[in-house]
Design a protein that fits this description.
heterodimer; A: about 110 residues; 2 domains; B: about 475 residues; alpha+beta; Four Helix Bundle (Hemerythrin (Met), subunit A); 3 domains; six-stranded antiparallel β-sheet; about 50% helix; extended
């Protein structure tokens, strides 16, 4: 996180812009999911809609983490902690999804 | 005692302690929510449409979830500015921003509370042929209604299950014959408890006496157990009492008696076991398309105009699918899409409009008007409930499963409540900490503003994390 109030004051505008981006991202996600005009892929909820929705959510959460949580300029130890955590968190998700491809699961 | 490294960074980590602490805590939170998200993904991807429990993809009130997302994002912006105000040494400004954060947090919880309330007051019923109706149970008819004149209780168990289901507005007075004397009872639970103790003591004493006799004279014929009355019949002194019992607690019932799982047996008269259900939505994704026209739900609704409205909605969706796959791509419509909820679910919220469209409104006839007519068909008015929806009467034997939209209703609802509930607890935790800083932080701010700024920063990091979790929860729970 920035060290002084002066330094952070420079970023005031950036905080509002990021807030606006987050608002806009939410509006786009709802539009993709609910409005036919923005429908991606097959009618209704398709895999493309889900991918787009989760992609927007990922961008939004990255903005929150980088700007609001000041991860864009943090100490190395925090990055190490997060990389270590994310490795296991994503590993858990990947293993769960991978288990659905299990031939034994498929047989049932 | 001065705690070191509250403000200044340690040389080895380059961080002040609380900051390292909050990031370690957030790392554990990532794992916690990561586990829940991966469970969700596993369950969601593993669902076979039309085969497993129907996966409700569009049951949430999207505008409310959308509003809550914006509110939480706004609170995340405000908390940064609150921290900034502290860094600038402006206490009043800090309080103003923090008040905005807390307002957003309470607003978020209020909306969530409203959503939860709606879930717990809306029901889904799976009929024996697997057609699903969703809506509202009317007049408490999810329970079996009975009018009791007397109740027989096995006092050795001491259980009075029937009492739980007696309608609350009644006072119960019973007469019961104990040892040849008529006893009046106003508190059944307390009487049953004291009788349990008395009778069990008598049983134990009799058993001891028989053992003692056998020890004294092993060759003599064993004494017969003493006749001890275990079951007592309590007869209502006044009017018969009314019960509305959950069927899972009733072991058997007939027109004249009702037995509970603990053995309580109520004699009297069955008042009703038909479930009155106001239908908001029909979901046929568990029924093959070829059999949908014969689904039980249509027999219960018994209105061809409603069925025609459902057919139109389904055909419209199928046309879209066919255009996308067949016409534009030359591919057959995948079976998965044919079985999907989108094609097989129809919202009946505009019953009146639907009837107008399909039956032709007669002059002076208001299709929205409530009517109690039964045996309805094309053009006839159907019985409508409090939300101006069709009301059906479902014989209990035609019900496979009935529940409100609580965690018991299905996998989706279970994980929805788990994840949003846990998230809600985090919001409450954030409110407590941020509220404490807002109302009680001034002393520390005056003493050591940097220390106060660090505390707000740590709480702010937690708050951003709460926002970050919701950013993913909203699309997966409300939209997809």
């Amino acid at each position: 996180m920035a060290d002084s109030a002066e330094e952070i004051a420079k970023h005031k505008k950036a905080y509002w812009i990021v807030g606006a981006f987050l608002f806009a991202g939410t509006v786009i996600t709802v539009a993709v999911a609910r409005l036919e005009f923005f429908d991606l892929g097959a009618p209704g909820i398709s895999a493309m809609d889900v991918i787009m929705g989760l992609l927007i959510a990922t961008v939004k959460s990255t903005l929150v983490a980088l700007i609001f949580m000041h991860l864009n300029h943090e100490k190395g130890l925090i990055y190490k902690i997060l990389v270590f955590t994310c490795y296991f968190a994503f590993g858990m998700i990947v293993l769960m999804v991978y288990s659905l491809l299990d031939p034994i699961h498929a047989a049932f | 005692m001065e705690i070191p490294f509250e403000v200044k960074a340690r040389k080895d980590t380059g961080l002040w302690n609380a900051k390292l602490g909050i990031w370690l805590f957030l790392a554990s939170e990532v794992m916690l929510f990561g586990g829940l998200f991966s469970s969700y993904i596993f369950l969601r991807l593993g669902i076979e449409p039309g085969v497993d429990t129907p996966w409700p993809t569009d049951v949430q009130k999207v505008p409310l979830g959308f509003l809550n997302t914006l509110v939480l994002i706004a609170s995340s912006v405000f908390v940064v500015f609150a921290w900034l105000a502290i860094k600038e040494g402006k206490w009043k400004k800090f309080q103003a921003w923090m008040a905005a954060v807390l307002f957003c947090a309470f607003f978020f919880l209020a909306v969530k509370g409203y959503e939860y309330y709606n879930k717990f007051t809306h029901y889904g019923m799976v009929l024996v042929d697997h057609s699903v109706v969703e809506g509202v149970v009317l007049d408490n008819t999810d329970k079996i209604r009975f009018e009791g004149k007397s109740v027989t209780i096995d006092v050795t168990k001491g259980s009075v299950e029937f009492l739980k289901w007696v309608d609350k507005d009644q006072r119960l007075f019973f007469d019961v014959e104990v040892d040849g004397k008529l006893v009046s009872i106003s508190n059944v639970a307390s009487w049953a408890s004291s009788m349990r103790s008395k009778v069990n003591k008598e049983i134990a004493a009799d058993r001891s006496a028989r053992w003692a006799a056998k020890r004294k004279n092993p060759d003599a014929a064993p004494l017969k157990p003493k006749k001890i009355t275990r079951s007592y019949t309590l007869v209502s002194k006044g009017d018969p009492f009314r019960l509305s019992a959950k069927d899972s607690r009733v072991s058997a019932y007939s027109d004249k008696e009702m037995s509970f799982v603990d053995g309580n047996k109520v004699d009297g008269k069955l008042l009703g076991d038909v479930i009155k259900f106001e239908v908001h939505e029909v979901d046929l994704q568990m029924i093959p398309k070829a059999q949908q026209d014969q689904a039980l739900v249509w027999k219960l609704i018994n209105d061809s105009a409603v069925k025609a409205g459902w057919d139109d909605a389904r055909d419209e969706e199928l046309k879209k699918m066919e255009k996308y796959y067949l016409e534009d791509r030359g591919l057959p419509v995948p079976d998965k899409q044919m079985r999907s909820r989108r094609v097989n679910v129809h919202d009946l919220h505009a019953v009146g409009k639907m009837k107008d469209g399909h039956t032709g409104d007669k002059p002076g006839h208001d299709a929205h008007k409530e009517s109690k007519n039964k045996g309805h068909d094309v053009g006839a008015e159907v019985e409508v409930g409090e939300h101006h929806q069709i009301v059906i009467e479902v014989p209990r034997e035609q019900k496979r499963f009935l529940s409100n939209h609580g965690p018991a209703y299905g996998t989706y609802y279970a994980i929805y409540f788990t994840m949003t509930g846990l998230h809600g607890l985090h919001v409450i935790g954030g409110i407590v900490v941020l509220g404490y800083f807002m109302f009680f932080g001034k002393a520390l701010f005056l003493k050591n503003p940097e220390h106060m700024a660090n505390r707000v920063e740590v709480a702010g990091l937690f708050w951003h994390f709460v926002d970050l979790v919701w950013i993913f929860l909203f699309p997966i729970m409300y939209l997809f």
